[in-house]
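Side project, low priority. Logging it here so it doesn't get lost.
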Amino acid sequence: MTCHQTMAPEHGAIRQIVAAACALAAAMGIGRFSYTPILPLMTEQASLSPALGAFLASSNYLGYLLGMVLGTFWQRAARSRASLRACSILLVLSLAVMPLTRSVEVWLVARTVAGALSALLFLVASHSVLEVAAARSPQLAGWAYGGVGVGIVLSGLLVAGCRQLGDWRLAWAASAAAAAALLALSWNLATAPAVGPRLSASRQRTPASFVVLCTLYFLEGAGYIIAGTFLVAAVQTSAGSSAGVWTWILVGLAALPSCVVWARLSTRISRPVLLGIALGLQAIGMSLPALHDGLSAALASAVLFGGTFMGITTLALAEGRHLGTARAVAILSVGYSLGQILGPIAVAPFLHHGHGSALLVGAGLAAVASGLAFLLARRPRG
Protein backbone atom coordinates (compact mmCIF):
# COMPACT_ATOMS: atom_id res chain seq x y z
CA MET A 1 0.00 0.00 0.00
CA THR A 2 1.48 3.36 -1.05
CA CYS A 3 1.94 6.37 1.20
CA HIS A 4 -1.01 8.20 -0.31
CA GLN A 5 -3.42 5.29 0.00
CA THR A 6 -3.46 5.22 3.79
CA MET A 7 -2.99 7.77 6.50
CA ALA A 8 0.57 7.92 7.76
CA PRO A 9 1.38 7.94 11.50
CA GLU A 10 1.34 11.32 13.19
CA HIS A 11 5.00 12.05 12.51
CA GLY A 12 4.36 11.25 8.85
CA ALA A 13 1.54 13.78 8.78
CA ILE A 14 3.84 16.42 10.24
CA ARG A 15 6.45 15.69 7.57
CA GLN A 16 3.75 16.02 4.93
CA ILE A 17 2.61 19.40 6.30
CA VAL A 18 6.21 20.66 6.38
CA ALA A 19 6.84 19.45 2.81
CA ALA A 20 3.62 21.09 1.61
CA ALA A 21 4.55 24.33 3.40
CA CYS A 22 7.92 24.34 1.61
CA ALA A 23 6.23 23.75 -1.74
CA LEU A 24 3.81 26.63 -1.12
CA ALA A 25 6.62 28.90 0.08
CA ALA A 26 8.49 28.31 -3.17
CA ALA A 27 5.52 28.31 -5.54
CA MET A 28 3.60 31.25 -4.09
CA GLY A 29 5.85 33.18 -1.71
CA ILE A 30 8.75 33.23 -4.18
CA GLY A 31 7.56 31.97 -7.56
CA ARG A 32 4.71 34.46 -7.62
CA PHE A 33 5.27 37.13 -5.01
CA SER A 34 9.00 37.78 -5.29
CA TYR A 35 8.04 39.99 -8.24
CA THR A 36 6.37 42.46 -5.83
CA PRO A 37 9.56 43.61 -4.02
CA ILE A 38 11.67 43.20 -7.17
CA LEU A 39 9.32 45.39 -9.26
CA PRO A 40 10.58 48.73 -7.84
CA LEU A 41 14.18 47.62 -8.52
CA MET A 42 13.32 46.77 -12.13
CA THR A 43 11.56 50.10 -12.48
CA GLU A 44 14.63 51.97 -11.21
CA GLN A 45 17.39 49.90 -12.84
CA ALA A 46 15.87 48.16 -15.89
CA SER A 47 13.68 51.03 -17.14
CA LEU A 48 10.48 49.06 -16.59
CA SER A 49 7.49 51.34 -17.08
CA PRO A 50 4.45 51.18 -14.76
CA ALA A 51 2.26 49.89 -17.60
CA LEU A 52 4.75 47.17 -18.53
CA GLY A 53 5.12 46.27 -14.87
CA ALA A 54 1.35 45.73 -14.65
CA PHE A 55 1.41 43.75 -17.89
CA LEU A 56 4.18 41.48 -16.59
CA ALA A 57 2.15 40.91 -13.43
CA SER A 58 -0.94 40.00 -15.45
CA SER A 59 1.06 37.60 -17.63
CA ASN A 60 1.98 35.69 -14.48
CA TYR A 61 -1.66 35.63 -13.43
CA LEU A 62 -2.68 34.44 -16.90
CA GLY A 63 -0.23 31.57 -16.52
CA TYR A 64 -1.72 30.85 -13.10
CA LEU A 65 -5.18 30.62 -14.68
CA LEU A 66 -3.92 28.25 -17.37
CA GLY A 67 -2.32 26.07 -14.71
CA MET A 68 -5.53 26.01 -12.70
CA VAL A 69 -7.59 25.05 -15.74
CA LEU A 70 -5.13 22.28 -16.57
CA GLY A 71 -5.26 21.02 -12.99
CA THR A 72 -9.07 21.11 -13.04
CA PHE A 73 -9.46 18.86 -16.06
CA TRP A 74 -6.35 16.69 -15.68
CA GLN A 75 -6.24 15.30 -12.18
CA ARG A 76 -2.81 13.72 -12.61
CA ALA A 77 -1.30 17.18 -13.11
CA ALA A 78 -2.81 18.35 -9.82
CA ARG A 79 -2.26 15.24 -7.71
CA SER A 80 0.83 13.32 -8.80
CA ARG A 81 4.38 13.35 -7.47
CA ALA A 82 5.69 13.32 -11.05
CA SER A 83 3.87 16.61 -11.66
CA LEU A 84 5.24 18.02 -8.40
CA ARG A 85 8.82 17.24 -9.38
CA ALA A 86 8.56 18.38 -12.99
CA CYS A 87 6.92 21.65 -11.96
CA SER A 88 9.57 22.20 -9.27
CA ILE A 89 12.44 21.96 -11.76
CA LEU A 90 10.74 24.14 -14.38
CA LEU A 91 9.74 26.80 -11.83
CA VAL A 92 13.34 27.25 -10.73
CA LEU A 93 14.41 27.58 -14.37
CA SER A 94 11.69 30.18 -15.05
CA LEU A 95 13.05 32.30 -12.19
CA ALA A 96 16.68 31.78 -13.17
CA VAL A 97 16.11 33.03 -16.73
CA MET A 98 14.79 36.44 -15.59
CA PRO A 99 18.20 38.06 -14.85
CA LEU A 100 19.83 36.67 -17.99
CA THR A 101 18.12 39.08 -20.38
CA ARG A 102 16.40 42.43 -20.80
CA SER A 103 14.06 41.04 -23.45
CA VAL A 104 10.47 41.89 -22.57
CA GLU A 105 9.29 38.94 -24.64
CA VAL A 106 11.42 36.50 -22.62
CA TRP A 107 10.23 38.07 -19.37
CA LEU A 108 6.61 37.67 -20.45
CA VAL A 109 7.10 34.01 -21.34
CA ALA A 110 9.03 33.30 -18.15
CA ARG A 111 6.44 34.94 -15.90
CA THR A 112 3.57 33.21 -17.72
CA VAL A 113 5.26 29.83 -17.33
CA ALA A 114 6.06 30.55 -13.68
CA GLY A 115 2.39 31.35 -13.07
CA ALA A 116 1.22 28.06 -14.57
CA LEU A 117 3.78 26.08 -12.57
CA SER A 118 2.89 27.91 -9.34
CA ALA A 119 -0.76 27.02 -9.87
CA LEU A 120 -0.05 23.32 -10.36
CA LEU A 121 2.24 23.22 -7.33
CA PHE A 122 -0.43 25.00 -5.31
CA LEU A 123 -3.02 22.39 -6.34
CA VAL A 124 -0.73 19.44 -5.59
CA ALA A 125 0.13 20.83 -2.15
CA SER A 126 -3.46 21.87 -1.38
CA HIS A 127 -4.96 18.48 -2.21
CA SER A 128 -2.34 16.81 -0.06
CA VAL A 129 -2.87 19.20 2.85
CA LEU A 130 -6.68 19.09 2.76
CA GLU A 131 -6.53 15.29 2.78
CA VAL A 132 -4.53 15.32 6.00
CA ALA A 133 -6.52 18.16 7.57
CA ALA A 134 -9.87 16.48 6.89
CA ALA A 135 -8.71 13.38 8.80
CA ARG A 136 -7.09 15.23 11.70
CA SER A 137 -7.49 18.98 12.27
CA PRO A 138 -8.19 22.06 10.09
CA GLN A 139 -5.28 23.77 11.87
CA LEU A 140 -2.87 21.50 9.99
CA ALA A 141 -3.95 23.13 6.73
CA GLY A 142 -3.31 26.49 8.35
CA TRP A 143 0.28 25.59 9.15
CA ALA A 144 0.87 24.43 5.58
CA TYR A 145 -0.61 27.54 3.98
CA GLY A 146 1.51 29.58 6.36
CA GLY A 147 4.40 28.49 4.16
CA VAL A 148 3.35 31.24 1.77
CA GLY A 149 4.19 33.74 4.49
CA VAL A 150 7.60 32.13 4.93
CA GLY A 151 8.25 32.53 1.21
CA ILE A 152 7.17 36.17 1.28
CA VAL A 153 9.45 36.95 4.22
CA LEU A 154 12.33 35.20 2.48
CA SER A 155 11.73 37.05 -0.80
CA GLY A 156 11.65 40.36 1.05
CA LEU A 157 14.87 39.64 2.93
CA LEU A 158 16.59 38.56 -0.28
CA VAL A 159 15.58 41.75 -2.07
CA ALA A 160 16.60 43.89 0.91
CA GLY A 161 20.04 42.28 0.82
CA CYS A 162 20.34 42.54 -2.94
CA ARG A 163 19.44 46.23 -2.80
CA GLN A 164 22.61 46.70 -0.76
CA LEU A 165 24.87 44.19 -2.54
CA GLY A 166 23.71 44.14 -6.14
CA ASP A 167 20.81 44.92 -8.42
CA TRP A 168 17.60 43.42 -9.78
CA ARG A 169 19.52 40.61 -11.51
CA LEU A 170 20.98 39.38 -8.23
CA ALA A 171 17.51 39.53 -6.68
CA TRP A 172 16.10 37.17 -9.32
CA ALA A 173 19.09 34.82 -9.06
CA ALA A 174 18.77 34.68 -5.28
CA SER A 175 15.04 34.01 -5.61
CA ALA A 176 15.72 31.08 -7.95
CA ALA A 177 18.24 29.62 -5.50
CA ALA A 178 15.86 29.98 -2.57
CA ALA A 179 13.03 28.34 -4.51
CA ALA A 180 15.33 25.44 -5.42
CA ALA A 181 16.23 24.86 -1.77
CA LEU A 182 12.58 24.90 -0.65
CA LEU A 183 11.42 22.63 -3.45
CA ALA A 184 14.14 20.13 -2.61
CA LEU A 185 12.52 19.83 0.83
CA SER A 186 9.14 19.10 -0.76
CA TRP A 187 10.52 16.59 -3.31
CA ASN A 188 8.92 13.58 -1.55
CA LEU A 189 5.57 15.17 -0.66
CA ALA A 190 2.89 12.46 -0.43
CA THR A 191 0.24 13.36 -2.98
CA ALA A 192 -3.52 12.86 -2.65
CA PRO A 193 -5.27 10.19 -4.73
CA ALA A 194 -7.60 11.13 -7.58
CA VAL A 195 -11.09 10.32 -6.35
CA GLY A 196 -14.61 11.18 -7.39
CA PRO A 197 -16.89 13.26 -5.15
CA ARG A 198 -18.90 11.51 -2.47
CA LEU A 199 -21.81 13.84 -1.91
CA SER A 200 -24.78 13.54 0.38
CA ALA A 201 -28.21 14.52 -0.94
CA SER A 202 -28.28 17.59 1.32
CA ARG A 203 -24.97 18.86 -0.05
CA GLN A 204 -26.17 18.43 -3.62
CA ARG A 205 -28.92 20.95 -2.90
CA THR A 206 -26.54 23.88 -2.24
CA PRO A 207 -25.36 25.05 -5.69
CA ALA A 208 -26.44 28.66 -5.02
CA SER A 209 -24.16 28.86 -1.99
CA PHE A 210 -21.23 27.67 -4.07
CA VAL A 211 -21.98 30.31 -6.73
CA VAL A 212 -21.92 33.02 -4.06
CA LEU A 213 -18.65 31.62 -2.71
CA CYS A 214 -17.11 31.59 -6.20
CA THR A 215 -18.23 35.17 -6.81
CA LEU A 216 -16.77 36.56 -3.63
CA TYR A 217 -13.55 34.58 -4.17
CA PHE A 218 -13.30 36.00 -7.71
CA LEU A 219 -13.66 39.53 -6.31
CA GLU A 220 -11.06 38.76 -3.67
CA GLY A 221 -8.67 37.56 -6.36
CA ALA A 222 -9.08 40.84 -8.25
CA GLY A 223 -8.89 43.01 -5.15
CA TYR A 224 -6.07 41.44 -3.16
CA ILE A 225 -3.72 41.08 -6.13
CA ILE A 226 -3.72 44.85 -6.65
CA ALA A 227 -2.11 45.22 -3.22
CA GLY A 228 -0.11 42.03 -3.76
CA THR A 229 1.46 43.61 -6.85
CA PHE A 230 1.75 47.30 -6.01
CA LEU A 231 1.85 47.60 -2.20
CA VAL A 232 5.65 47.85 -2.01
CA ALA A 233 5.75 50.50 -4.75
CA ALA A 234 2.95 52.45 -3.04
CA VAL A 235 4.68 52.39 0.34
CA GLN A 236 8.00 53.43 -1.19
CA THR A 237 6.25 56.49 -2.59
CA SER A 238 4.55 57.44 0.66
CA ALA A 239 7.07 56.31 3.29
CA GLY A 240 10.46 55.99 1.58
CA SER A 241 12.33 53.37 -0.45
CA SER A 242 13.59 51.30 2.48
CA ALA A 243 10.10 51.12 4.00
CA GLY A 244 8.70 49.30 0.97
CA VAL A 245 10.70 46.09 1.26
CA TRP A 246 10.41 45.94 5.05
CA THR A 247 6.66 46.42 4.75
CA TRP A 248 6.59 43.39 2.45
CA ILE A 249 8.55 41.37 4.99
CA LEU A 250 5.96 42.33 7.61
CA VAL A 251 3.23 41.12 5.23
CA GLY A 252 4.91 37.72 5.23
CA LEU A 253 5.35 37.66 8.99
CA ALA A 254 1.66 38.46 9.45
CA ALA A 255 0.67 35.80 6.90
CA LEU A 256 2.73 33.06 8.57
CA PRO A 257 0.48 32.40 11.60
CA SER A 258 -2.70 33.81 10.06
CA CYS A 259 -3.93 30.59 8.45
CA VAL A 260 -3.65 28.72 11.75
CA VAL A 261 -5.50 31.50 13.57
CA TRP A 262 -8.35 31.62 11.04
CA ALA A 263 -8.55 27.81 10.90
CA ARG A 264 -8.75 27.63 14.70
CA LEU A 265 -11.47 30.29 14.75
CA SER A 266 -13.41 28.27 12.16
CA THR A 267 -13.95 25.53 14.76
CA ARG A 268 -16.02 28.02 16.78
CA ILE A 269 -17.40 30.49 14.23
CA SER A 270 -18.84 29.67 10.81
CA ARG A 271 -16.42 30.08 7.91
CA PRO A 272 -18.70 32.47 5.94
CA VAL A 273 -18.82 34.86 8.92
CA LEU A 274 -15.05 34.66 9.28
CA LEU A 275 -14.67 35.30 5.54
CA GLY A 276 -16.78 38.45 5.91
CA ILE A 277 -14.65 39.66 8.82
CA ALA A 278 -11.34 38.86 7.11
CA LEU A 279 -12.36 40.53 3.86
CA GLY A 280 -13.51 43.63 5.72
CA LEU A 281 -10.21 43.89 7.58
CA GLN A 282 -8.35 43.39 4.32
CA ALA A 283 -10.31 46.22 2.68
CA ILE A 284 -9.31 48.55 5.52
CA GLY A 285 -5.68 47.47 5.26
CA MET A 286 -5.46 48.02 1.51
CA SER A 287 -6.97 51.49 1.75
CA LEU A 288 -4.61 52.80 4.46
CA PRO A 289 -1.56 53.66 2.26
CA ALA A 290 -3.89 55.46 -0.14
CA LEU A 291 -5.49 57.56 2.59
CA HIS A 292 -2.52 58.21 4.89
CA ASP A 293 1.17 58.82 4.22
CA GLY A 294 3.87 57.68 6.57
CA LEU A 295 5.28 54.55 8.12
CA SER A 296 2.51 53.86 10.65
CA ALA A 297 -0.15 53.54 7.96
CA ALA A 298 2.18 51.31 5.92
CA LEU A 299 2.85 49.00 8.86
CA ALA A 300 -0.83 48.75 9.77
CA SER A 301 -1.64 47.99 6.14
CA ALA A 302 0.98 45.24 6.05
CA VAL A 303 -0.39 43.56 9.17
CA LEU A 304 -4.01 43.70 8.01
CA PHE A 305 -3.23 42.59 4.47
CA GLY A 306 -0.75 39.88 5.44
CA GLY A 307 -2.95 38.67 8.26
CA THR A 308 -5.94 38.07 6.00
CA PHE A 309 -5.14 37.18 2.40
CA MET A 310 -3.93 33.60 3.02
CA GLY A 311 -6.50 33.13 5.78
CA ILE A 312 -9.19 33.97 3.23
CA THR A 313 -7.79 31.30 0.93
CA THR A 314 -7.78 28.73 3.74
CA LEU A 315 -11.38 29.54 4.70
CA ALA A 316 -12.72 29.70 1.14
CA LEU A 317 -11.19 26.41 0.03
CA ALA A 318 -12.36 24.65 3.19
CA GLU A 319 -15.88 26.04 2.70
CA GLY A 320 -15.87 24.87 -0.92
CA ARG A 321 -14.90 21.40 0.23
CA HIS A 322 -17.67 21.51 2.85
CA LEU A 323 -20.30 22.42 0.26
CA GLY A 324 -19.39 19.22 -1.55
CA THR A 325 -19.01 20.49 -5.11
CA ALA A 326 -16.85 18.26 -7.27
CA ARG A 327 -13.36 19.73 -7.83
CA ALA A 328 -14.25 22.67 -5.59
CA VAL A 329 -10.62 23.63 -4.94
CA ALA A 330 -9.79 23.84 -8.64
CA ILE A 331 -13.02 25.66 -9.59
CA LEU A 332 -12.59 28.25 -6.85
CA SER A 333 -8.95 28.72 -7.79
CA VAL A 334 -9.82 29.24 -11.46
CA GLY A 335 -12.23 32.04 -10.52
CA TYR A 336 -9.64 33.51 -8.17
CA SER A 337 -7.01 33.52 -10.90
CA LEU A 338 -9.42 35.16 -13.37
CA GLY A 339 -9.78 37.97 -10.87
CA GLN A 340 -6.00 38.20 -10.54
CA ILE A 341 -5.62 38.70 -14.28
CA LEU A 342 -8.22 41.45 -14.42
CA GLY A 343 -7.14 43.32 -11.28
CA PRO A 344 -3.79 44.78 -12.45
CA ILE A 345 -5.16 45.46 -15.95
CA ALA A 346 -8.20 47.29 -14.56
CA VAL A 347 -6.10 49.63 -12.41
CA ALA A 348 -3.30 50.20 -14.97
CA PRO A 349 -4.75 53.61 -16.07
CA PHE A 350 -4.52 54.83 -12.45
CA LEU A 351 -0.83 54.00 -12.07
CA HIS A 352 0.38 57.07 -13.96
CA HIS A 353 -0.98 59.14 -11.08
CA GLY A 354 0.46 56.96 -8.32
CA HIS A 355 -0.76 53.81 -6.64
CA GLY A 356 -3.28 55.22 -4.16
CA SER A 357 -6.32 55.08 -6.44
CA ALA A 358 -5.43 51.55 -7.50
CA LEU A 359 -5.28 50.41 -3.88
CA LEU A 360 -8.69 51.98 -3.23
CA VAL A 361 -10.16 49.99 -6.12
CA GLY A 362 -8.76 46.82 -4.59
CA ALA A 363 -10.18 47.78 -1.20
CA GLY A 364 -13.60 48.36 -2.76
CA LEU A 365 -13.61 44.91 -4.35
CA ALA A 366 -12.67 43.30 -1.03
CA ALA A 367 -15.47 45.23 0.68
CA VAL A 368 -18.05 43.93 -1.82
CA ALA A 369 -16.70 40.40 -1.32
CA SER A 370 -17.12 40.88 2.43
CA GLY A 371 -20.77 41.74 1.94
CA LEU A 372 -21.28 38.59 -0.13
CA ALA A 373 -19.62 36.49 2.57
CA PHE A 374 -22.09 37.76 5.16
CA LEU A 375 -24.88 37.00 2.68
CA LEU A 376 -23.52 33.47 2.37
CA ALA A 377 -23.53 33.18 6.15
CA ARG A 378 -27.30 33.74 6.14
CA ARG A 379 -27.91 30.75 3.85
CA PRO A 380 -28.55 27.26 5.23
CA ARG A 381 -25.37 25.13 5.26
CA GLY A 382 -25.26 21.41 4.54
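Brief comment: Residues 1-9, 197-205 have pLDDT under 50 and may be disordered.
Revisit when time allows.
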